[in-house]
Amino acid sequence: MMARPTTIPYGAGRFLIGDGADPEVFVAPCGFTQANVTIDKSTNETAVPDCDDPDAPVWSETGVTTMSWSMQLQGVMAKESYALYEAAALSSKSVSVRHELKGAGTGTGTPDKRYQGKAHIKIQLQAQRGEKYQVTLDAQGDGELTSTNILIAP
Fold first, then answer.
1. CA separation for the pair 85, 72 (Å, rounded)
2. CA 40 to CA 67: how far, in whole Å?
3. Whole-model pTM above 0.90?
4. Phi, psi of 133 (to 5 degrees)
5. What is the percentage of the chain residues whose pLDDT exceeds 90?
6. What is the pLDDT of residue 1?
7. CA distances from 119 to 27, 51, 110, 140 (A)
8. pLDDT in tens, 12-30
9. Residue 75, by phi and psi: left (phi above 0), alpha (psi -120 to 50) or beta?
10. Distance in angstroms (rounded) separating the CA atoms of residues 52 and 49
11. 105 and 111 Cβ atoms separated by less than 8 Å
12. Pairing outcome for strands 134-141 and 112-126
């Protein structure tokens, strides 16, 4: 019989946008109901022959050529958070973003996980008659994404 895994609920995660100040202050916008963090790689393959048996099947070795990341959040458009999204989307510069997950880290003093990097923000608003406006926020990574085990203050 398989042991039950320890799962992490949606509410254990939060997305934050930095204000660019020094020291930088991060704000957690509200209204999101879906979150997605993607870490991607571009690869190439090289056929590596067997030197002792040139007629043997050749094994492929995979090398990583580039790495990229993105975050996507969707949910109801909270009026209180809209100015933050809009400022980031209208800027031609990347902004600091974080995605934190309570309970996803390792270690006794660092039980939580933080992904952080600079990203270009795009937003999309959508609505339908009789419903509330929805927002989709795309954060396209601009450089390295760091992964840190931390303790998130309550």
1. 13
2. 6
3. no
4. -65, 140
5. 90
6. 82
7. 15, 46, 25, 5
8. 999 999 988 999 999 999 9
9. left
10. 9
11. yes
12. antiparallel
Contact 7, 28 (CB under 8 A): no
Say how far apart CA 25 and CA 85 lie, in whole Å. 15
List all residues 6 or more positions away from 14 whose beta carbon is below 8 Å from its beta carbon. 28, 99, 100
Q: Given this model, what pLDDT does residue 56 score?
A: 95
Contact status, residue 10 vs residue 75, Cβ threshold 8 Å = no
Q: Are 133 and 125 in contact (CB under 8 A)?
A: yes
* Across 119-125, average pLDDT: 97
134 with 77: CB under 8 angstroms? yes
In angstroms, the CA 82 to CA 23 distance is 23
Rounded mean pLDDT, 72-96: 95
Whole-number pLDDT of residue 75? 96
What DSSP letter does each residue of 72-86 carry, written as one string?
EEEEE--HHHHHHHH
